[in-house]
Amino acid sequence: MKIKAALAAATLLAASGQLAAKPFCGELVNAFGPFDYRTPDAEQLHLVEQAHFTEEVEQGLKGNTGTLGADLDYTLRAFPNHTRALETLAKVALRQKAVQLPGGKYPVECYFERAVRFVPDDGAAHAAYAGYLYRVGQPEKALPMLEKAVELDPENPSINYNLGLAYAKMKKYDPAVKYARKAYELGFPLPGLKNMLTAAGKWSDKTP
Prior knowledge:
By secondary structure, the protein is mainly alpha-helical. It has helices spanning 2-21, 42-52, 55-58, 68-78, 83-96, 108-118, 123-135, 139-152, 157-169, 173-185, 192-199.
C-alpha cells in the first residue's frame, strides 16, 4: 500500500508540474493561425480584419460579430502581434477600467505576453507591451520591455522617443538625451521630449 501511495503521489506531483509549466496565458496554437502580423498573407489578414477588426472595432466603439472583447480576442489569437489590435485592447481596457474585457478569453495583459512570446524578435510588440504597462502604472516592468524594444528595432524613431521619455521622467538625463537625439535624427516630429529636456537644462542644439 505504501508503494502504491508513493507512486500515486509521484504521479500527482508530475501532473502538477506539467500544469505549472503550461503558460498561464494559454498555448499559442489556434484553429486559424497564429500568423506573424509583420509578414501577413494578405488574404488571411483580410479574412480576419473584415469580420473582427473593422473600423468600429479599431476605434473601440463596438464589436462586429459579437462583443468588442470577442472580436479583439479572435484577431489577437490569429495574429498575436497585431499591434493595432493591441493598442485598441489597451485603450478599451483602460477606459473601462477592466482587467479582462467581456468576451475576451484572457486577461488584457495576457494578449501582450502572448505577442512577445509568439514573436520575441518583434520590437513593436515589446513597445506595445511596455506602453500598456506604463499606462497601468507598472513602470518597473515597462522599462526593461522598452529597452528590449529599442535593442530589437534600433532605427524606430517612436520607440527611441518613448524610451527617452521614460528616462526623462525618471530624471535619468544622460540616456534620455541619447535616445531623444536618436529619435529626432530619425525624424520623430513631436517636440515634447526636447522641450522637457530643455526645461531641465539638459538639451542644447549646439552639442552632439
